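U., I forgot to send this yesterday:
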Amino acid sequence: MSAFLKERQVAIQAVLQASKVCQSVFKHLVANETLTKNDKSPVTVADFSAQAIVNTYLEEAFPNDPIIGEEDSKDLRGESGKVLREKVHSLTNGILSAEQRLSEDQILRAIDRGNYTGGPSGRHWALDPIDGTKGFLRGGQYAVCLALIVDGIVELGVMGTPNLPLDVSKTDSEQGTLFVAVRGQGAFQRSFSNDKETPIHFSAINSTEEATFCESVEAGHSSHDEAAQIAQLLGITRPAVRMDSQAKYCSISRGDADIYLRLPVSDTYVEKIWDHASGNVLVTEAGGKVTDIYGQPLDFSIGRHLSKNKGVIASNKALHETIVKAVQAVVKL
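Result:
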């Protein structure tokens, strides 16, 4: 029997249902309402609903497994949280079957299961219920990201990307793609509507001149200026693919682009593990490599943050060392 088979099945179902609730929130609270520029309430509802759904699935299947989640329920409690709480309750149960539906208290408890601090031993899950909040609000790319970490090693990653086409080369391709990887078992993708999985892998390019960057839409997440200098050093002339969220890990893992850089934008910023855990195993299993800007593997054993690492470089394995050297030359390590 394959390792982590049950975990894989449960994670797929949890992420798929959470992705569907995000789609429902967008349909009901974004597409059909006029939002002010700073109105983040729809993405807040989606964040809470997605975390409640994933944590409920994990608790039912693996009641002893702790979870590192991005959200807690304090903003949903009491009279001040009533309106938000009712929206989360309604939209969450709109996705679940009749026998799965949750009370308000059950939803709050499920959300608060994500309070684990992490560490080097045992097993725990890392969840980002919506990675790419601005992408979500603009109808762009965002992802529901779930990973299983055992003794500091990411063993399983599942990502739901509701707005990413199954095949970007086809204009009529179905939107909504699920990405799955278990360490040592390869990387796969499938649609939301069909459980048939197909293997994915990096493009078979032989030089950086053939490569394409995949970059954040938001310059505040990674330095676009430094990325342009690195591209020049590497002889990259193709226009960058820009998208929000961990969907970038998915994009390079199936060959839509080739290099993802998350360059430090300040001396003090530390990456969070839920932003990179599932993408790390997906890239590795698709034939790529992930390190920090020093060429060191990402260390998921420290807690809720990648406090031993600085920045992230994900790329084709054969070209990775060349890319790391170019990054170091530009950021002047």
